[in-house]
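Researcher: Final request for today, and then I'll write up notes for the group meeting. The sequence and the SMILES for zinc ion follow.
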Amino acid sequence: MTASTQTAAPTRCRRCRRPLRNTKSAAAGIGPGCLRLERTETAGYTPEQAAKAVTLVRDGGITLIRGGLDALYRVEGAHCVYWASQVDCTCRGAAECGSCYHVLGVRILAAGRVRPSLYALAA
Ligand SMILES: [Zn+2]
Ligand SMILES: [Zn+2]
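Model: Predicted protein-zinc ion complex:
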């Protein structure tokens, strides 16, 4: 038993920034509710794609260009800029395999659960 790591500031959920009191949740960096949401949203994507999508949103790489029913987003890719909606994307991933993490990022951003500003405050 080690009493050396009595943290003053609790670990916060990477999605909603709420403090995580549960040891297991704190170790995972995400609360149980957010984990469930994330699993639902990321169904069909690999954990690597999901992580990339969350990082992209967190870093402000996705911007809403046009709202409404056919909302359009600007996605800052590694080498170029893509245009994406919640179902489609102009990158080659979408054209070649019908799935890319940009669309996932757009969904996460549209759901409003990862707010770049909150991460900016914590950084
Ligand atoms: Zn959370
Ligand atoms: Zn894409």
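Model: The pocket of zinc ion (ligand 1) is lined by residues 13, 15-16, 18, 31, 34 (CB under 6 Å). Residues 116-123 have pLDDT under 50 and may be disordered.
Researcher: Thanks, that's everything.
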